[in-house]
Automatic annotation (TrEMBL):
GO molecular function: hydrolase activity, acting on carbon-nitrogen (but not peptide) bonds
InterPro entries in the cross-refs: Amidohydro-rel, Metal-dep_hydrolase_composite, Metal_Hydrolase, MTA/SAH_deaminase
Keyword set, alphabetical order: Hydrolase
Name of the molecule in the record: Amidohydrolase-related domain-containing protein
High-level lineage: unclassified sequences, metagenomes, ecological metagenomes
Keyword Phosphoprotein recorded: no
Organism (species): bioreactor metagenome
Amino acid sequence: MKTRDYEKEKYAHETDHTKPFKYDPGLENGLKVLHKEIPLKVHSYQHDMLTMIKIAKEFDFNLTLDHALGAGDFADEIVESKAAVIYGPIGCCIFPGELCKIDIDCLVTLDQRGVCCAIMTDGPCLFPEYMVVQAGEVVRFGGNHYDVMKMITINPAKIIGCDQRIGSLEPGKDADLVIYQKTPALDTDAQTCYTIIDGKIVYQR
């Protein structure tokens, strides 16, 4: 509601500069959410997800459920909402309360049902270099390795609205590349052969 009020004040000021208005960068981002220019990213576990899905429906904005541990219990609601899921960290400790359930297999189910899913390390909780290891865990829980690799490449790009520029190998896109001698997230002994950044080889095995 605060963002809605801010939008009204901003519009009133634009049409009549004598009316008071104070610029707020935080609420400007709120306007981008309401106008569906960016999704609202929500740190959520368990029943938090249902609450945010309800709010997103009421105010008609796009949503990403970040962490989303326990999402398997609310698969139907998530599918219906069309919210994106950024799951993880995979491999974190289980604690009482909101961290009481780590349901890695839910990523497989949600992906198969059309939800745009991605994987997070929640750095510095887990280091970014564990990303491929976490993807391998999803494969171990039944994910197709090709679909799981999308969860750390094109799917995150789609979620943030940058898939026209990054996330896949296509003419005209930007890409830093890692080339393995085997299939990452599938072969546990896959090792990096080359790393290419800005078109230059910065690492060679």
